[in-house]
Each structure stands twice: as C-alpha cells, then as structure tokens.
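ARCHIVE CARD
Drawer: 12
Card no.: 0347
Subject: one protein chain, sequence and derived structure
Cross-reference: see card 0346
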Amino acid sequence: MVITQMAEEECRAFLGDASFGRLGCSREDQPYVLPLYFAYEAGFIYALSTFGQKNEWMRTNPKVCLEVDEITNQSEWTSVIATGRYQELPEPRFTTEREHARALLGKRQLWWQNALGERQISLGDHAIAPLFFRIHVDSITGLRATDGSAPSWKAPEK
C-alpha cells in the first residue's frame, strides 16, 4: 500500500463529487461528530439541518471540520478533511444564499432526509423549521492510499 498526500485541487474536486461526510465540532473540550449530507462549491460547504445540539455547539464554537472518505478496501481509500467556520443562513438576511444552498443540495438524492427525517420521528406532524448553514472553508487536506499500481480516484480532467 502506498499513501500519498493529495493536492488541494484534487481535494476540492473530491469534495465536489461527494455528498456525505462527518461533521466535527466541539464545545468545552468535548468533541461531537455526526453524519451530514452536504454540497461543496467554491470554498463553501452547504448543509441543511434542524436545530439541535450540533447547532448549539457550533454557535458557541464556530470552528468545525468535515471529513469525507471513500473506501474501496483496506489498501485503497481516499480521505479528505476540510476545516473552517460555521455560519447559519437565516431568513430574510440570507435568502439568496439559502436558495443557492437549496439548489446545490437539490442535485443530491434525498439530501433532506437525514436532517428532517430524524425530527419527524421525534416531533410527529409538528412543523419542522429547516436550518441552512454553510462552512467557510479555511483549509483542505487529503490522503489517498493505493495498492501501488494506480490511484483509485482521480480529479476529473478539464
């Protein structure tokens, strides 16, 4: 197995193709990691949520990260981590950004299901307020493991 560091452009292309990852945040030295459907574009990660612990924590400490991986087998995988700052997109101030987030996320199948489905189970038919947010990406790093012959993932050619 050969592990190589990915170029930033490769990491961005990988995030652009992905739709599911793990969001990490922390409060008072306690980490919290959860699954998240997202869309990446030009330095921002967009997501839909409902209000809960993660939002409380990110309001307190907006420094977050998103880890996305693709695992073929033990010796062939790709892992990208983006770090950045959480920002809620409330109405009416961020109407344009919310619509942009909705359009990007809408390209992903069932992009709303995790965020709204969990609340539907606990709240029943009560109104569920969607919360759009984005992460201003400060840095992206990635590693790729291959069996030594050829990479399992390549950035699309332009």
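Annotation on reverse: The first strand starts at residue 2 and ends at 5. The chain has a mean pLDDT of 85.
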